[in-house]
Structures are given as structure tokens and as C-alpha cells.
């Protein structure tokens, strides 16, 4: 087992992917109102760009601002970054007022709605680096066959293990779980002294990894498949170990999320994304941990991915320069700089080796890119998942089949 020995980092506690993954969108600073009016210092005739982002904190805000400033100096095009305090609301207001930002963070669950009403440009196939993005990320931002927008970065889920507790339980590298049976076995061994073996959030954004490992998922090939036998098997597996006490929802051990459960040693293992690295170094610097791929289930390996893209307004007056900015922001060097600054993984394959070299203990997260599923991204899916999450909270005593049938009905209402 390769230990991740805590070292000082300049990463925020939650990267952008974490915001999506937990459903929280607590953003900093303020910014609303956009204009295509040229700004001071703008190159003659070049237009100007407004950029709206949702930030995980000061590190991300500064990194994006610096990158845009560097591109602006290089291109001669004036560009201004604004940070939203409620990104979905401010983006919606901008479109409603006819003055949206030129470039903006866009969540997968918002893509279909904006694509349907013609608000955003489908520019993905025009990018010079379009073939460099991970295929699953391209799929994540494809609607009706059109690749709409460049994935800006991404996160996956992995198994995070308290290395000291692992060793104290007599476990070694040879015991790292690669199957569900092995996961259950080590979780049982690690459940002791008022501590649970494995904890994770009571939400699809964590439990969905087990569904993927069973060979299931909420939507398959455009069809609602929530009540599939594979998903039933996955939830029954989770329920079994919630009841034998070796698994627990983070909230049931008094933690707000998996990172807190691991950091406070209320759980020996958790299922979380790579945003956990910033939280551990900032809040729990004395906890040694290791990262492993999630074990395979009956259907093989499975995890979930979380991402945003760089959206472009369809009516923006400077499309060519906006696309040039996106190509700059998603370049290998710039994505590696973003990763160092605030934690996400680059969305392009050409950055994989450099990222792995810089983060040798975190390779399991990037390995997940090869088999990751993404949450449903059609219009209305976010509401379905919110309802599903509310039901998952009672999984320990509930009926997995009935729970999934409700999700199936809700999905069928939105999957045309």
C-alpha cells in the first residue's frame, strides 16, 4: 500500500467536482450583469469577453483569473472573470435578460435545457483539441449527437483508506479489496472501537458507484433502467452491510460527508472523489491515507464521474475568440496548472502522464476515467436524483425494489 503522507498544499477543501457531487453549490464572491461593451485596454476591433464561473474557493478563482489574464495579454482581447454566488440562477437571469456571459461554467444537468432552447452554442466539434478529451466526458456533454462544450476538468470516486487503521488491523497491500466480497470482509475487520469500516454519503452520487459495479445505472442507452435487476442487487448489497454494521452513511456516524468521517476517524474507509485531498491536508493534516480503485462488482469495475464544461452563449458576439479562450483553458499546460492550484483532474488524455507523475498516490482516480459512468444529464434529471437521494436515506430499513421502481417512474417521465 502506498501511503499518502500529508504535506502542505495550496488546495481548497472542495474542488468544483465536489460541488456537483454533493449537490451543494455554495459559491463565493459576487457577479451579475454582463455586457458586450468593449472594455478599457481592449484591442481594436477584437471585441471583449465576459466569463462567469462558480468557484470552490479563492484558489480556483485566482487560478482562472490569472489564466484568463494571460490569454487576454497574449490575444489582445479584453476579458473579465466574474464569480457567481449562485451560478445556475445568475446564468438563467443573464439569458432571460438577453445579456448572458460569453463563456461560463455549465453543469451537465443544465446542458439539455439550454441546448433545447438554443441558448448555447454547440462548438465541441470545432475545437482543435476535441480528440484529446476523454470519450466519457465528450459523451457527458453530447446532446442529440452534438458535442456542445469542452469539459473543463473532472473527478471520479475511489476508495480512501486510513493507512494507520489498516495496518493496525493486520491488513497489507495484499488485502486491498478488488471484489465486493473482499470489500465486505475488510470493512468488517476495520469495524471496531465505535468506528465503522466503510462510510459514504446517503445519495446516488456515492451509492450509484455500486450500481455501476453491478452492471446497472439509472439510464442505459437512452432508456430508464433504474429498476433493473442489477440495481436491485447493488442496493441489496449495500443494505446488507448497512445492517451488519460494517457500512454506514456518513450522516449516521455524525459526519457531514465522507471526508469528515475519514478525517475524524469515524470511518476507516470512505468512498469519495479527488476533492478529498484538499480537505484532508487543510483540516486533517495528521491523517495518513491511501487511495485505491473501487472494487469490482458482479458487472465489473464501476465508478461515477463529475464534471463541468465551458459553455458558450449562442448569441455571443465573439464566438471565435471565445472558442480560442476555451482551447487555451483546456490545453495540457493550463489544465495541469489548474490541477496543482485547486485539485481537479485534467479532462484531456495528453495530460494524464504528467498528472500521474505529479500525483503518484492518486492514480486510482484517473484510472476510473476508463470505466466511469456519469449521472443522467437530460432535462429534469436533477429533480429525479434529488427525490432518489431522499429515499436512499431510508435504505437500511426500506425496500430496494420499491425505491428503484419510484425512481424508474420518475425517469420514464423525462426520458423521451
Task: Tell me what you see in this structure.
It is built from 17 helices and 14 strands. The protein is of the alpha/beta class. The chain has helices at 16-22, 58-75, 87-96, 108-116, 135-140, 163-168, 180-190, 204-213, 229-243, 258-263, 276-283, 319-329, 332-342, 352-358, 363-367, 381-392, 400-412; strands spanning 48-53, 78-83, 103-106, 142-143, 146-147, 150-162, 196-200, 219-220, 223-224, 247-249, 267-273, 289-292, 303-312, 372-373. α2 (58-75) links the parallel β1 (48-53) and β2. Strands 1, 2, 3, 6, 7, 10, 11, 12, 13 and 14 form a 10-stranded mixed beta sheet that branches. The radius of gyration is 21 Å and the shape is globular. The protein folds into 2 domains: 16-155 and 305-373, D-Maltodextrin-Binding Protein, domain 2 (3-Layer(aba) Sandwich), CATH 3.40.190; 157-303 and 376-412, Periplasmic binding protein-like II (D-Maltodextrin-Binding Protein, domain 2), CATH 3.40.190. The relative contact order is 0.19. The chain starts with 15 loop residues before the first helix and ends with a helix. Keywords: Signal, Sugar transport, Transport. It comes from Microbacterium proteolyticum.
Amino acid at each position: 500500500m502506498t501511503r499518502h503522507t500529508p504535506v502542505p498544499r495550496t488546495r481548497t477543501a472542495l474542488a468544483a467536482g465536489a460541488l456537483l457531487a454533493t449537490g451543494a453549490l455554495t459559491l463565493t464572491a459576487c457577479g451579475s450583469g454582463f455586457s458586450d461593451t468593449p472594455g478599457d485596454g481592449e484591442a481594436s476591433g477584437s471585441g471583449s469577453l465576459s466569463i462567469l464561473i462558480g468557484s470552490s474557493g479563492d484558489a480556483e478563482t485566482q487560478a482562472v483569473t490569472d489564466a484568463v489574464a494571460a490569454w487576454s495579454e497574449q490575444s489582445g482581447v479584453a476579458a473579465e472573470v466574474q464569480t457567481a454566488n449562485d451560478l445556475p440562477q445568475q446564468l438563467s437571469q443573464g439569458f432571460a435578460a438577453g445579456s448572458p456571459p460569453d463563456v461560463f461554467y455549465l453543469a451537465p444537468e443544465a446542458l439539455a435545457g439550454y441546448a433545447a432552447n438554443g441558448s448555447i452554442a454547440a462548438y465541441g466539434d470545432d475545437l482543435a483539441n476535441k480528440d484529446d478529451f476523454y470519450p466519457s466526458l465528450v459523451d457527458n456533454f453530447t446532446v442529440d449527437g452534438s458535442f456542445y462544450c469542452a469539459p473543463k476538468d473532472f473527478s471520479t470516486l475511489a476508495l480512501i483508506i486510513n493507512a494507520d487503521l489498516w495496518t493496525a488491523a493486520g491488513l497489507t497491500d495484499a488485502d486491498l479489496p478488488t471484489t465486493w466480497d473482499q470489500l465486505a470482509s475488510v470493512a468488517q475487520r476495520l469495524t471496531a472501537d465505535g468506528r465503522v469500516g466503510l462510510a459514504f454519503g446517503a445519495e446516488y452520487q456515492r451509492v450509484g458507484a455500486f450500481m455501476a459495479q453491478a452492471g446497472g445505472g439509472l439510464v442505459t442507452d437512452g432508456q430508464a433502467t433504474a429498476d433493473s435487476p442489477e440495481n436491485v442487487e447493488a442496493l441489496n448489497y449495500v443494505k446488507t452491510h448497512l445492517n451488519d454494521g460494517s457500512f454506514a452513511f456518513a450522516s449516521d456516524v455524525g459526519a457531514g460527508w465522507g471526508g469528515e468521517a475519514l478525517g475524524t476517524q469515524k470511518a476507516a474507509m470512505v468512498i469519495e472523489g479527488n476533492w478529498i485531498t484538499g480537505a484532508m491536508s487543510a483540516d486533517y493534516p495528521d491523517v495518513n491515507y491511501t487511495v485505491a480503485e473501487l472494487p469490482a462488482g458482479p458487472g465489473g469495475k464501476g465508478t461515477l464521474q463529475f464534471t463541468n464544461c465551458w459553455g458558450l452563449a449562442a448569441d455571443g458576439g465573439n464566438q471565435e475568440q471565445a472558442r480560442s479562450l476555451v482551447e487555451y483553458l483546456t490545453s495540457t499546460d493550463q489544465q495541469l496548472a489548474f490541477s496543482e492550484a485547486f485539485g481537479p483532474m485534467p479532462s484531456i488524455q495528453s495530460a494524464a502522464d504528467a498528472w500521474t507523475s505529479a500525483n503518484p498516490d492518486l492514480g486510482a482516480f484517473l484510472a476510473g476515467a476508463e470505466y466511469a459512468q456519469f449521472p443522467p444529464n437530460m432535462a429534469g434529471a436533477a429533480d429525479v436524483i434529488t427525490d432518489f437521494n431522499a429515499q436512499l436515506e431510508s435504505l437500511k430499513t426500506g425496500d430496494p425494489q420499491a425505491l428503484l421502481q419510484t425512481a424508474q417512474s420518475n425517469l420514464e417521465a423525462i426520458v423521451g
